[in-house]
Amino acid sequence: MYSWNDPDDRVAIAQMNSELRHAQLDLLSAQCATDRLRLRFSVGDLARYSERDLLRKTIGTAVALHEYYLSIQNEMGLEVSILSAAQIAHAVKQVSAYLSKQREIHFANGAPLAPRLKETLQAFFSPALLERVRTVELHGRRLPPPPFYSEAHALGFDHLPELTHMPSLTFVDVIVFNDLLIDRALFHGLVHAVQFQILGLERYADLFVRAFLRTNAHFTVPLETHAFALESKFAVDPRKAFSVEEQVRLWLREGRY
């Protein structure tokens, strides 16, 4: 066992933490690669059509890593804690209340979509949604972090979404732009508006919180990765129509959120 009081051990501990940082970055890359798989292919597709030996080796590696890091967590005991059901419910309630409050604050100042935008986007979204959605441009003023972030930081969550750096944020049917409205960020925000419409505020918040707790990274939450994927599809060819609502309902049926 190492001791912080031994100078030689302190050097070894520093090296250990340096290697741990490299491992964490490599694991994050692996997680991103896995999320790209999850984004494009269902579990059933992978189980049926993937190369058996390749899949077996991949699963074996993932299981071995899980067991290794779980053993470290068990050794740490209470120092690494998984949120209780009550804490998760509390977090979902906080996120839901925040989204609702921000929607209330910004709706009054929101502007309807311009006719040009409605014409461009009608091939992807329903006329009712495009009519209902409001947009707000903050011109660089930027949204502050939510009030519950300090509590989340105290629980050890250090990778919370940095709202001030996001082009847009969707609060149910209000899309707030930290700077100016741009078409691609608007499309992304409208995907979230469709998710809110289909899931409802409370279920959206519940799915988001639980996925974030699994991955500890905002960009790997399925609600977010789907919005990025559909936004990218739109950006590649804005003339190729598809229904965002159908895509969201498909992911919901397949349990991919």
Description:
The protein folds into 2 domains: 7-79; 85-253, no CATH class. The protein has 11 helices and 4 strands. The chain has helices at 7-40, 43-49, 52-76, 85-107, 115-121, 127-132, 149-154, 183-199, 201-215, 222-236, 244-253; strands at residues 111-112, 134-137, 168-171, 174-177. Strands 1-2-4-3 form a 4-stranded mixed beta sheet. A hairpin with a 2-residue loop joins strand 3 and strand 4 (174-177). Helix 8 (183-199) crosses helix 9 and helix 8 (183-199) crosses helix 11. Mean pLDDT is 87; it is low at 77-81.
User: What fraction of the residues are assigned to beta strands by DSSP?
Assistant: 5-15%
Instruction: State the end-to-end CA separation.
Output: 43 Å
Q: Give the SSE order as H and E letters.
A: HHHHEHHEHEEHHHH
Q: Quick check: average pLDDT? A: 87
Enumerate the spans where pLDDT stays under 50 for 5 or more consecutive residues: 77-81
If you compute it from the alpha carbons, what radius of gyration comes out, rounded to the nearest whole angstrom? 21 Å
- The helix count comes to 11
How are strands sequenced across the largest beta sheet?
1-2-4-3
Class based on secondary structure composition and strand pairing: mainly alpha
Proportion in helices:
55-70%
**Main sheet makeup:** 4 strands, mixed
Global morphology:
globular
How many structural domains are formed by the residues? 2
Q: Tell how many strands the DSSP assignment holds.
A: 4
